[in-house]
Amino acid sequence: MTAPNLTPAASESRPAPQGERVLCAMSGGVDSSVTAALLKDQGYQVIGAMMRFWPDDKRTDTFDSCCSPDAAYEARRVAEQVGVPFYLLDYREAFQRHIVGPFLDEYARGRTPNPCVNCNTKVKFDELVKKAKMLGCRYVATGHYVKRVENARGEVEFHRGDDPRKDQTYFLWGTPRDALPYILFPVGELEKPRVREIAAERGLLTAQKPESQNICFVPGKVQDFVAEHLPQAQGKIREIRGGEVVGEHLGTQFYTLGQKKGLGLYQTHRVRHVVHLDPATNTVWVGDYEDCLWTGLRAAGANYLLDLAELPRELEVQVRYRTAPVRATVVHADEHGFELRFAEPQFAVAPGQSAVLYAGPWLLGGGLIADHARTLPA
Protein backbone atom coordinates (compact mmCIF):
# COMPACT_ATOMS: atom_id res chain seq x y z
CA MET A 1 0.00 0.00 0.00
CA THR A 2 1.37 3.39 -0.95
CA ALA A 3 0.97 6.54 1.07
CA PRO A 4 -1.84 8.81 -0.09
CA ASN A 5 -1.27 12.25 -1.50
CA LEU A 6 -1.26 14.42 1.61
CA THR A 7 -0.69 17.65 -0.28
CA PRO A 8 -2.39 20.41 1.74
CA ALA A 9 -5.84 20.97 0.34
CA ALA A 10 -7.85 24.13 0.28
CA SER A 11 -10.21 24.90 3.12
CA GLU A 12 -13.75 23.61 2.96
CA SER A 13 -14.95 23.19 -0.60
CA ARG A 14 -18.00 25.31 -1.39
CA PRO A 15 -19.59 24.46 -4.75
CA ALA A 16 -20.88 27.49 -6.62
CA PRO A 17 -24.66 27.44 -6.02
CA GLN A 18 -25.81 28.82 -9.39
CA GLY A 19 -29.35 28.10 -8.27
CA GLU A 20 -28.56 24.46 -7.47
CA ARG A 21 -31.21 22.65 -5.45
CA VAL A 22 -30.18 21.11 -2.13
CA LEU A 23 -32.13 18.87 0.23
CA CYS A 24 -31.37 19.98 3.78
CA ALA A 25 -31.91 17.36 6.50
CA MET A 26 -33.60 19.14 9.41
CA SER A 27 -33.93 17.47 12.80
CA GLY A 28 -35.50 20.32 14.74
CA GLY A 29 -32.11 21.15 16.33
CA VAL A 30 -30.00 24.28 16.13
CA ASP A 31 -27.28 22.79 13.87
CA SER A 32 -29.60 21.81 11.03
CA SER A 33 -31.57 25.06 11.46
CA VAL A 34 -28.44 27.15 10.90
CA THR A 35 -27.45 24.83 8.04
CA ALA A 36 -30.67 25.68 6.19
CA ALA A 37 -30.21 29.41 6.82
CA LEU A 38 -26.60 29.46 5.62
CA LEU A 39 -27.46 27.55 2.45
CA LYS A 40 -30.26 30.01 1.68
CA ASP A 41 -27.81 32.92 2.13
CA GLN A 42 -25.35 31.26 -0.24
CA GLY A 43 -27.90 31.17 -3.04
CA TYR A 44 -29.03 27.55 -3.03
CA GLN A 45 -32.61 26.50 -3.66
CA VAL A 46 -33.17 24.85 -0.31
CA ILE A 47 -35.75 22.16 0.44
CA GLY A 48 -36.06 21.31 4.12
CA ALA A 49 -36.86 17.71 5.02
CA MET A 50 -37.13 15.68 8.19
CA MET A 51 -37.02 11.91 8.31
CA ARG A 52 -39.79 10.46 10.45
CA PHE A 53 -38.55 7.54 12.52
CA TRP A 54 -40.95 7.44 15.47
CA PRO A 55 -43.77 4.84 15.24
CA ASP A 56 -47.45 5.57 15.76
CA ASP A 57 -47.24 3.96 19.20
CA LYS A 58 -44.27 6.10 20.25
CA ARG A 59 -43.30 5.28 23.82
CA THR A 60 -42.75 7.89 26.50
CA ASP A 61 -39.19 9.25 26.60
CA THR A 62 -38.33 8.07 23.10
CA PHE A 63 -37.60 10.25 20.07
CA ASP A 64 -38.01 13.28 22.35
CA SER A 65 -34.86 15.35 21.82
CA CYS A 66 -34.68 14.76 18.09
CA CYS A 67 -36.80 13.14 15.40
CA SER A 68 -39.97 13.60 17.47
CA PRO A 69 -43.38 15.09 16.62
CA ASP A 70 -42.39 18.22 18.56
CA ALA A 71 -39.06 18.38 16.73
CA ALA A 72 -40.90 18.07 13.41
CA TYR A 73 -43.11 21.01 14.38
CA GLU A 74 -40.03 23.08 15.30
CA ALA A 75 -38.25 22.12 12.07
CA ARG A 76 -41.29 23.22 10.06
CA ARG A 77 -41.41 26.51 11.96
CA VAL A 78 -37.70 27.12 11.30
CA ALA A 79 -38.23 26.39 7.60
CA GLU A 80 -40.93 29.07 7.59
CA GLN A 81 -38.56 31.51 9.33
CA VAL A 82 -35.81 30.82 6.79
CA GLY A 83 -38.26 30.88 3.90
CA VAL A 84 -37.86 27.38 2.48
CA PRO A 85 -40.37 24.56 1.83
CA PHE A 86 -40.47 21.67 4.28
CA TYR A 87 -41.43 18.01 3.95
CA LEU A 88 -41.81 15.24 6.52
CA LEU A 89 -40.54 11.99 4.99
CA ASP A 90 -41.74 8.63 6.31
CA TYR A 91 -38.83 6.29 7.08
CA ARG A 92 -40.36 4.31 9.93
CA GLU A 93 -40.05 0.94 8.23
CA ALA A 94 -36.45 1.54 7.13
CA PHE A 95 -35.50 2.67 10.64
CA GLN A 96 -36.91 -0.47 12.24
CA ARG A 97 -35.26 -2.70 9.62
CA HIS A 98 -31.83 -1.07 9.52
CA ILE A 99 -31.44 0.32 13.04
CA VAL A 100 -33.63 -1.12 15.80
CA GLY A 101 -33.57 -4.75 14.62
CA PRO A 102 -29.78 -4.94 14.11
CA PHE A 103 -29.25 -3.10 17.42
CA LEU A 104 -30.92 -5.94 19.32
CA ASP A 105 -29.31 -8.61 17.12
CA GLU A 106 -25.86 -7.31 17.99
CA TYR A 107 -26.51 -7.49 21.73
CA ALA A 108 -27.79 -11.04 21.28
CA ARG A 109 -24.44 -11.86 19.65
CA GLY A 110 -22.48 -10.48 22.61
CA ARG A 111 -21.46 -7.33 20.76
CA THR A 112 -21.86 -3.60 21.51
CA PRO A 113 -23.47 -1.76 18.57
CA ASN A 114 -23.41 1.93 17.72
CA PRO A 115 -26.82 2.67 16.15
CA CYS A 116 -25.89 6.26 15.21
CA VAL A 117 -23.19 4.99 12.83
CA ASN A 118 -25.66 2.57 11.30
CA CYS A 119 -28.31 5.27 10.96
CA ASN A 120 -25.99 7.62 9.07
CA THR A 121 -24.78 4.82 6.80
CA LYS A 122 -27.98 2.90 6.04
CA VAL A 123 -30.61 5.63 6.30
CA LYS A 124 -29.44 9.23 6.21
CA PHE A 125 -26.71 8.94 3.56
CA ASP A 126 -28.35 6.18 1.60
CA GLU A 127 -32.11 6.66 1.64
CA LEU A 128 -31.86 10.46 1.86
CA VAL A 129 -29.49 10.74 -1.10
CA LYS A 130 -31.94 8.66 -3.15
CA LYS A 131 -34.80 10.93 -2.11
CA ALA A 132 -32.76 14.00 -3.05
CA LYS A 133 -32.29 12.68 -6.56
CA MET A 134 -36.02 12.00 -6.84
CA LEU A 135 -36.70 15.63 -5.88
CA GLY A 136 -34.22 16.94 -8.45
CA CYS A 137 -31.66 18.01 -5.83
CA ARG A 138 -27.98 17.97 -6.64
CA TYR A 139 -26.87 18.03 -3.01
CA VAL A 140 -27.82 16.79 0.44
CA ALA A 141 -26.82 18.98 3.39
CA THR A 142 -26.71 18.16 7.10
CA GLY A 143 -25.73 19.89 10.32
CA HIS A 144 -22.84 17.52 11.05
CA TYR A 145 -19.60 19.07 12.28
CA VAL A 146 -17.55 17.76 9.37
CA LYS A 147 -15.51 19.62 6.76
CA ARG A 148 -15.96 19.00 3.05
CA VAL A 149 -12.53 19.43 1.48
CA GLU A 150 -11.49 19.22 -2.16
CA ASN A 151 -7.98 17.83 -2.65
CA ALA A 152 -5.44 18.70 -5.34
CA ARG A 153 -7.00 16.10 -7.68
CA GLY A 154 -10.46 17.64 -7.38
CA GLU A 155 -11.76 14.79 -5.20
CA VAL A 156 -13.97 15.46 -2.21
CA GLU A 157 -12.73 14.35 1.20
CA PHE A 158 -14.31 14.46 4.65
CA HIS A 159 -12.14 16.06 7.34
CA ARG A 160 -12.64 16.58 11.05
CA GLY A 161 -14.75 19.60 11.96
CA ASP A 162 -12.97 22.66 13.34
CA ASP A 163 -14.67 22.29 16.73
CA PRO A 164 -12.80 19.32 18.30
CA ARG A 165 -15.54 18.91 20.92
CA LYS A 166 -18.18 18.41 18.24
CA ASP A 167 -16.34 16.65 15.40
CA GLN A 168 -18.66 13.96 13.97
CA THR A 169 -16.56 12.30 11.29
CA TYR A 170 -16.52 9.15 13.46
CA PHE A 171 -20.16 8.53 12.56
CA LEU A 172 -19.70 8.97 8.80
CA TRP A 173 -17.08 6.36 7.90
CA GLY A 174 -19.73 4.24 6.15
CA THR A 175 -20.79 6.96 3.71
CA PRO A 176 -20.65 5.59 0.13
CA ARG A 177 -17.59 7.09 -1.54
CA ASP A 178 -19.51 8.01 -4.68
CA ALA A 179 -21.88 10.13 -2.55
CA LEU A 180 -19.15 12.38 -1.14
CA PRO A 181 -19.31 15.05 -3.90
CA TYR A 182 -23.03 15.53 -3.27
CA ILE A 183 -22.96 16.15 0.50
CA LEU A 184 -22.53 19.59 2.12
CA PHE A 185 -21.68 20.50 5.73
CA PRO A 186 -22.20 24.26 6.15
CA VAL A 187 -21.38 24.30 9.89
CA GLY A 188 -18.22 22.18 9.59
CA GLU A 189 -15.91 25.18 9.96
CA LEU A 190 -17.83 26.70 12.87
CA GLU A 191 -17.67 26.10 16.59
CA LYS A 192 -20.87 25.30 18.44
CA PRO A 193 -21.12 28.64 20.32
CA ARG A 194 -20.93 30.49 17.01
CA VAL A 195 -23.69 28.32 15.56
CA ARG A 196 -25.93 29.28 18.46
CA GLU A 197 -25.01 32.94 17.97
CA ILE A 198 -26.05 32.79 14.31
CA ALA A 199 -29.35 31.18 15.28
CA ALA A 200 -29.97 33.85 17.92
CA GLU A 201 -29.07 36.67 15.52
CA ARG A 202 -31.70 35.35 13.11
CA GLY A 203 -34.28 34.77 15.81
CA LEU A 204 -34.51 31.04 15.06
CA LEU A 205 -36.62 29.31 17.69
CA THR A 206 -34.07 26.50 18.10
CA ALA A 207 -31.20 28.83 19.13
CA GLN A 208 -31.08 27.59 22.73
CA LYS A 209 -32.50 24.11 22.24
CA PRO A 210 -30.58 21.48 24.29
CA GLU A 211 -28.61 18.82 22.45
CA SER A 212 -29.72 15.23 22.09
CA GLN A 213 -27.49 12.87 24.08
CA ASN A 214 -29.26 9.51 24.31
CA ILE A 215 -30.12 6.82 21.77
CA CYS A 216 -33.32 8.21 20.29
CA PHE A 217 -35.43 5.03 20.36
CA VAL A 218 -34.34 3.80 23.81
CA PRO A 219 -36.36 4.94 26.82
CA GLY A 220 -34.18 5.08 29.91
CA LYS A 221 -31.28 2.65 30.22
CA VAL A 222 -30.07 0.49 27.36
CA GLN A 223 -29.98 -2.57 29.64
CA ASP A 224 -33.68 -2.17 30.42
CA PHE A 225 -34.54 -1.86 26.72
CA VAL A 226 -32.51 -4.96 25.89
CA ALA A 227 -34.16 -6.87 28.74
CA GLU A 228 -37.60 -6.15 27.28
CA HIS A 229 -36.70 -7.61 23.88
CA LEU A 230 -34.18 -10.40 24.50
CA PRO A 231 -34.88 -13.45 26.68
CA GLN A 232 -32.90 -13.86 29.88
CA ALA A 233 -30.93 -17.05 30.41
CA GLN A 234 -28.91 -17.83 33.50
CA GLY A 235 -25.24 -18.58 32.89
CA LYS A 236 -21.83 -18.64 34.52
CA ILE A 237 -19.23 -15.93 35.01
CA ARG A 238 -15.78 -17.49 34.72
CA GLU A 239 -12.19 -16.40 35.20
CA ILE A 240 -10.29 -16.09 31.92
CA ARG A 241 -7.27 -17.63 33.66
CA GLY A 242 -8.19 -21.13 34.75
CA GLY A 243 -11.92 -21.13 34.09
CA GLU A 244 -13.03 -20.90 37.74
CA VAL A 245 -16.71 -20.04 38.20
CA VAL A 246 -16.84 -16.73 40.12
CA GLY A 247 -20.45 -15.65 39.60
CA GLU A 248 -23.70 -16.01 37.69
CA HIS A 249 -25.57 -13.83 35.22
CA LEU A 250 -28.87 -13.62 33.35
CA GLY A 251 -27.54 -13.16 29.83
CA THR A 252 -24.41 -12.04 28.00
CA GLN A 253 -26.44 -9.23 26.39
CA PHE A 254 -26.29 -7.26 29.63
CA TYR A 255 -22.50 -6.89 29.60
CA THR A 256 -19.88 -5.03 27.62
CA LEU A 257 -16.12 -5.44 27.35
CA GLY A 258 -14.20 -3.59 30.04
CA GLN A 259 -17.16 -3.46 32.43
CA LYS A 260 -16.20 -3.74 36.11
CA LYS A 261 -19.31 -2.55 37.94
CA GLY A 262 -22.43 -4.58 38.60
CA LEU A 263 -20.79 -7.97 38.05
CA GLY A 264 -21.96 -9.42 41.39
CA LEU A 265 -18.95 -11.73 41.74
CA TYR A 266 -18.44 -14.14 44.63
CA GLN A 267 -15.03 -12.67 45.44
CA THR A 268 -15.16 -8.93 46.04
CA HIS A 269 -11.57 -8.24 47.09
CA ARG A 270 -10.36 -8.06 43.46
CA VAL A 271 -11.27 -5.65 40.68
CA ARG A 272 -12.13 -7.61 37.56
CA HIS A 273 -13.32 -6.62 34.12
CA VAL A 274 -15.37 -8.33 31.44
CA VAL A 275 -12.84 -9.53 28.88
CA HIS A 276 -14.90 -11.82 26.63
CA LEU A 277 -18.56 -12.64 25.94
CA ASP A 278 -19.58 -16.03 24.55
CA PRO A 279 -23.33 -16.20 23.78
CA ALA A 280 -22.92 -19.71 22.33
CA THR A 281 -22.13 -21.10 25.80
CA ASN A 282 -23.83 -18.22 27.66
CA THR A 283 -20.59 -17.44 29.46
CA VAL A 284 -19.21 -14.12 30.65
CA TRP A 285 -15.42 -14.24 31.03
CA VAL A 286 -13.70 -11.85 33.45
CA GLY A 287 -10.11 -11.06 34.30
CA ASP A 288 -7.65 -8.42 35.39
CA TYR A 289 -7.11 -5.10 33.63
CA GLU A 290 -4.18 -6.57 31.71
CA ASP A 291 -6.44 -9.33 30.36
CA CYS A 292 -8.57 -6.66 28.70
CA LEU A 293 -5.76 -5.04 26.72
CA TRP A 294 -5.75 -5.48 22.94
CA THR A 295 -2.60 -5.33 20.84
CA GLY A 296 -4.63 -4.92 17.65
CA LEU A 297 -7.99 -5.53 16.04
CA ARG A 298 -9.76 -7.08 13.09
CA ALA A 299 -12.62 -5.24 11.40
CA ALA A 300 -15.24 -6.44 8.93
CA GLY A 301 -17.72 -4.66 6.67
CA ALA A 302 -15.08 -2.13 5.66
CA ASN A 303 -15.80 1.04 3.72
CA TYR A 304 -12.96 3.13 2.29
CA LEU A 305 -13.15 6.76 1.21
CA LEU A 306 -10.03 6.49 -0.94
CA ASP A 307 -8.54 3.89 -3.27
CA LEU A 308 -7.54 0.86 -1.23
CA ALA A 309 -4.08 0.92 -2.85
CA GLU A 310 -3.55 4.38 -1.33
CA LEU A 311 -4.42 3.39 2.23
CA PRO A 312 -1.33 4.32 4.26
CA ARG A 313 0.42 1.56 6.20
CA GLU A 314 0.81 3.85 9.21
CA LEU A 315 -2.34 5.68 10.24
CA GLU A 316 -4.55 6.53 13.20
CA VAL A 317 -7.60 4.64 14.39
CA GLN A 318 -10.39 5.73 16.71
CA VAL A 319 -12.24 2.88 18.43
CA ARG A 320 -14.82 4.94 20.37
CA TYR A 321 -16.44 8.28 19.70
CA ARG A 322 -15.22 9.91 22.92
CA THR A 323 -11.64 8.60 22.85
CA ALA A 324 -8.58 10.00 21.12
CA PRO A 325 -7.27 8.27 17.99
CA VAL A 326 -4.20 6.09 18.41
CA ARG A 327 -1.39 5.20 16.04
CA ALA A 328 -1.63 1.84 14.30
CA THR A 329 -0.05 -0.21 11.54
CA VAL A 330 -2.11 -1.87 8.82
CA VAL A 331 -1.27 -5.57 8.86
CA HIS A 332 -3.75 -6.44 6.13
CA ALA A 333 -6.57 -4.70 4.28
CA ASP A 334 -8.93 -5.78 1.51
CA GLU A 335 -12.39 -4.78 0.32
CA HIS A 336 -14.02 -6.81 3.10
CA GLY A 337 -12.08 -5.71 6.15
CA PHE A 338 -8.73 -4.93 7.71
CA GLU A 339 -6.38 -5.92 10.52
CA LEU A 340 -4.44 -3.38 12.58
CA ARG A 341 -1.66 -3.53 15.16
CA PHE A 342 -1.69 -0.77 17.78
CA ALA A 343 1.44 1.19 18.64
CA GLU A 344 0.40 0.68 22.29
CA PRO A 345 -2.11 -1.85 23.71
CA GLN A 346 -5.66 -0.50 24.02
CA PHE A 347 -8.19 -1.28 26.73
CA ALA A 348 -11.51 -3.02 26.00
CA VAL A 349 -11.82 -2.67 22.23
CA ALA A 350 -15.44 -3.75 21.95
CA PRO A 351 -16.69 -5.92 19.06
CA GLY A 352 -19.59 -4.23 17.28
CA GLN A 353 -18.17 -0.75 17.74
CA SER A 354 -16.50 1.10 14.86
CA ALA A 355 -12.80 1.24 14.06
CA VAL A 356 -12.50 4.53 12.17
CA LEU A 357 -9.37 5.29 10.14
CA TYR A 358 -7.68 8.69 9.78
CA ALA A 359 -4.62 10.36 8.30
CA GLY A 360 -4.47 13.45 10.47
CA PRO A 361 -7.87 15.15 10.07
CA TRP A 362 -8.74 13.18 6.92
CA LEU A 363 -11.38 10.46 7.32
CA LEU A 364 -10.16 7.40 5.40
CA GLY A 365 -12.98 4.96 6.18
CA GLY A 366 -13.59 2.30 8.78
CA GLY A 367 -15.16 -1.01 9.68
CA LEU A 368 -16.95 -2.87 12.46
CA ILE A 369 -14.69 -4.38 15.11
CA ALA A 370 -14.91 -8.16 14.95
CA ASP A 371 -14.69 -10.60 17.84
CA HIS A 372 -11.09 -10.97 18.87
CA ALA A 373 -9.44 -14.39 18.97
CA ARG A 374 -8.88 -15.50 22.54
CA THR A 375 -7.63 -18.76 24.02
CA LEU A 376 -10.18 -19.86 26.58
CA PRO A 377 -9.69 -22.43 29.37
CA ALA A 378 -11.04 -25.87 28.53
UniProtKB/TrEMBL annotation:
Localization per Swiss-Prot or TrEMBL: Cytoplasm
Disulphide bonds in the chain: 119-216
Keyword Signal attributed: no
Gene3D superfamilies, A to Z: Adenine nucleotide alpha hydrolases-like domains, HUPs, Translation factors
Binding site for ATP: 25-32, 51, 143
Enzyme nomenclature, EC number: 2.8.1.13
Transmembrane region(s): none
GO term, biological process aspect, one: tRNA wobble position uridine thiolation
Region (Interaction with tRNA): 166-168, 320-321
Active site per UniProt: 119, 216
Keyword entries, A-Z: ATP-binding, Cytoplasm, Disulfide bond, Methyltransferase, Nucleotide-binding, RNA-binding, Transferase, tRNA processing, tRNA-binding
Cellular component GO terms held in the UniProt record: cytoplasm
UniProt domain tRNA-specific 2-thiouridylase MnmA-like central: residue ranges: 223-288
Pfam families named among the record's database cross-references: tRNA_Me_trans (PF03054), tRNA_Me_trans_C (PF20258), tRNA_Me_trans_M (PF20259)
Family assignment from sequence similarity: Belongs to the MnmA/TRMU family.
Functional summary from the UniProt entry: Catalyzes the 2-thiolation of uridine at the wobble position (U34) of tRNA, leading to the formation of s(2)U34.
NCBIfam families named among the record's database cross-references: PRK00143.1, trmU
Protein name, entry field: tRNA-specific 2-thiouridylase MnmA
Organism: Deinococcus reticulitermitis
Originating gene: mnmA
